[in-house]
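Title: Request for sanity check on ATP-binding cassette, subfamily B, multidrug efflux pump prediction

Description:
We are preparing a figure and want to confirm that the structure record we downloaded matches what your pipeline produces today. Could someone re-run it with the sequence below and paste the raw C-alpha cells into this thread? We only need the C-alpha cell string, no images.
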Amino acid sequence: MKFTTILKRLWEYLRNYKGQFSIAMIATLVQNFTSAIEPIVIGLAITELSHNVVDIVNGVPDAGINYPYIAWVLVLYFIRGLGFFGGQFIAQFTLTNVVQKAMFDLRNDISTKASRIPVSYFDNHQTGDILARMTNDVDAITNALQQSFIQMVTAVLGISFAVISMLVLDWKLALILIATMPLSYVLSRYILGHSQKAFQKKADALGDLFGFTQEQLSGFTEIKVYGKQADTVKEFEAKNAELRDNGFKASFISSLMMPILNFVSNFAYAVVAIFGSFAVIAGSLTVGNLQAFVQYVWQINQPIQMMTQLSGVIQSASAAGTRVFTFLDEPEEYQGEITDSLPEKVAGEVVFDHVQFGYNPERPLMTDISFHVNPGETIAVVGPTGAGKTTLINLLMRFYDVDKGAIKIDGVDIKNTSRHDLRKHFGMVLQDAWLYTDTIRENLRFGDLDANDYEVQDAAEIANVDHFIKTLPGGYDMEINEEANNISLGQKQLITIARAVLSNPDILILDEATSSVDTRLEQLIQEAMDKVMEGRTSFVIAHRLSTIKNADMILVMQNGNITEHGNHEELMAKGGFYADLYNSQFDDQDPADIHMSY
C-alpha cells in the first residue's frame, strides 16, 4: 500500500476532529513563522551594533551604542519568543488530543471489523499476527502521528519560511542553496525506496514472531510433555533471526540518509559562507543579514536532519498502516440478500436440502447432504476425524455458506436471513471451553446479559455445576484468570453448558460437550442435558456413542457425506459402519484397526 494512500486513510480518522486539527496547524504556522523571523530580528541588532562599532572606531562625534534601538529589538525578540513557545504548546496539546481520539476510533473500527470478518479468515491467519495488527501496529501509527507529525509539518514549514526569507535578503545567494535541495530530495527518495521494503519485511517478521510466541505460550504444557523445548527454541531463534536481519537491513539503509544529507548540507553551508562574505565585502549584504543567512542555512539543514531521523519511525508506521488497513479492507461476511426473517421463536424444524459445500471450491467436501429434522428431535452426528461433523454445524450456524442446495429452519432458507437473526436462536457448547477473565457469574451471564443472579444460579443448578462453584474460593464471584487454569477443564466445560442453558435457545448444539469430563460428571451432564434438550431441537456431535443411544436420529458421516442414518437400534441391526464404531468402544480390538469417532 502506497504511503500517500495510508495518509489518506489516516486523514479519514483525523478529519473527524478537524476543528482541533486546524487549531494545531494554525499554532504550528505561528510557531514556524516566529522561528523564521528570529534570524532577521537578531540581524537587526547585529547590524546596528556593527554600525555603532564602526562609528566609534572612526571617531564619529557622539558615536556610541544605540541602546534604545537594541532594547526595542530585545522586546521584539521577547514577543517573538512568546509566539514561538505559545504556538508550540498549543500545537502539541491539540494534536495530541486529536491523535488519541482518532486512534480510539481506529481501534474501535478494528474491533468492529473483527466481529464482521468471516470465520475463514481466522482459519487461515495466526491469532498472534492478528493481535499484532490490533496492538503493535496501531501503536506504531499512534507514535508516528504523536511524535513525528508535528515535527514533519514543522520541518516543511521551517524550510519554506527559511527559503522565502533568504530570497528576500539576497535572492542570488539563496539560489545557490536552493540548487542543492533537489539533490537532497533525489538521494532521500532513493534511500527511502529501498528501506521501505525492508521495513515492511520487518513488520511482517514481527507479526510472525508475535503469532508464533502466542501459540507457544498457549501450548507450553504440551511442549513440555512431548519434550519439544529444544525444537521450539530452535524455531523461535530462526524467526527471531529473520526479524533481526530485516530490522538491521531496514535500520542500516535508513541510517545512511543522515550522513549523506549532512554532507550535502555542509557543502551548501560552506558555499553560502564564502559567497556571503564576498557580498558583505562588496557592500551588497549587511553583516546582520549575512548572520541571518547563515542561520537560515542551519534552519534548513536542521529540519532535513530531523526528517531523516524520523524516517525510520515513519516507515515503520507506513508498514504498520499497510497491515492495519489491509485487515480493515478484508471482505466481510457475505450477508446475501435478506429477503426473509425467522420468527421470534422457532419450532426447530431443520431441513438440509441437497447441500453441497467445500472449503476449497475445487475440492468439494460435501456433495449431497439431505435430511429432515422435526421440531424437538435430537440428532446425533458421528463419524471419524475429518468426516465433516463440525462442518455440518458450521453450515447450520452460517459460519460458511453452502455452495449449492439450501438449509431451512421452519421452512425459511437461512441464506435469505441475517446471520444475527439466525444465531440468536442457537445455543452452542463447544469441545474447547472458552471463558474470559471475569467472575464466574459474569461468564455464565454471557449467555444472557440481562439475566439476574437467581436465573444465573438456576442455570448452574440445571447444568449440575452449582455445587462445584460454591466450593470455590469466592463462589460465583471468583475471578477466572487470564489462562482460565485456576479451575479444572471439566468445570470449565460445565460452566459453558450452564451458559448455554441460560441463553434458553430454540436449537441446541453440543459439539463433544462431554469429552472433557469423567464418567461421573458425564452422567450428571447427561441428566442435565436430557432436561435441557426436552422439547428442543438438538444436534449432538458425539465421541462416546453410549451417550447418544436415545437420539431420535443418528447421522453417520464419512468423507463429508452421510453414509448411514437412523436410530440406534436400526443402525445396529444393519451391522454397518456405525455398528463397528459402537462395538469398538466395548471390546478389546486394537484401536489402530478401528476408525474411532472423534
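Thanks, this matches our download. Residues 3-328 form a domain with the ABC transporter transmembrane region fold fold (CATH 1.20.1560.10).
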